[in-house]
């Protein structure tokens, strides 16, 4: 009886999570809430649950440097910079092909260009020397581009730091069913050849994450 109740409870929870994710992301009155979310007045394309997880990761891992691909309006960079202000540690380099108006903050360096452009990769690698480095991939979400980014930026992530692949939820995981192969599929391909990176499901503890299977922790070996 206990096992049956547990089984049913798990099924109902999974369904409720799936439904909440879909409603939050794309349905009814709340359609696009994630695109209409701000941090200190600047638009940020994240779920508050994931933002809280970022806070926990920064507190625990205290990277010297966070590399972010995909700046958009700078909301995520500003959020991380403010967390770093509280921790009194860290800086951010964020890259985008589009130069939107962005907030100025002493911990943020904005780079304009493609994340996979060799000149930009070289520039970023130079900034990583002798630092503990965490990476967030949040630019173009096609599988090809994310795989290219994974190949390059996984090299700069230091042991015991995270490589976070954003928006693995698209292409039906569980939203945007018709997107086509994206970040989720890129992670599957990447992980097949990079056992040093382990998916940390504990970072999905708030049940709904835009990055299911996307919190990759680099092992210390
Ligand atoms: C999902 S948004 C980033 C959201 C932002 N990180 C946030 O949380 O608020 C994706 C951004 O990636 C940028 N982008 C697209 N292709 C890119 C590329 N090849 N290199 C760098 N940025 C790119 C787009 O211009 C867009 O601003």
The unreliable regions are none
CATH architecture: 3-Layer(aba) Sandwich
Task: Count the domains.
Answer: 1
Superfamily at the CATH H level?
Vaccinia Virus protein VP39
Rg to the nearest angstrom?
Answer: 17 Å
Could you say what the CATH topology is called?
A: Rossmann fold
The CATH C-level name is Alpha Beta
Q: Which structural class do you get from the secondary structure elements?
A: alpha/beta
Distinct ligand kinds: S-adenosylmethionine
Order of helices and strands: HEEHEHEEHEHEHEE
Indicate the percent of residues in helices: 25-40%
How far from one another are the termini? 44 Å
- Helix segment tally: 6
Widest sheet, order of strands? 5-4-3-6-7-9-8
Rough shape? globular
Query: What is the tally of beta strands?
Result: 9
Mean pLDDT across every amino acid position = 95
- Strand fraction band? 15-25%
Biggest pleated-sheet summary: 7 strands, mixed
What does this structure look like?
There is one protein chain. The chain has a seven-stranded mixed sheet, sandwiched between helices. A two-stranded antiparallel ribbon has the order 1-2. It has one domain (38-218): Rossmann fold. Helix content is 38%, strand content 16%. The protein has helices spanning 2-26, 48-61, 75-87, 118-128, 143-153, 183-193; strands at 38-39, 42-43, 65-69, 91-96, 108-112, 133-137, 162-165, 197-199, 215-218. Helix 3 (75-87) links the parallel strand 3 (65-69) and strand 4 (91-96). It is of the alpha/beta class and 221 residues long. The termini are far apart. It is globular, with a radius of gyration of 17 Å. Bound molecules: S-adenosylmethionine (SAM).
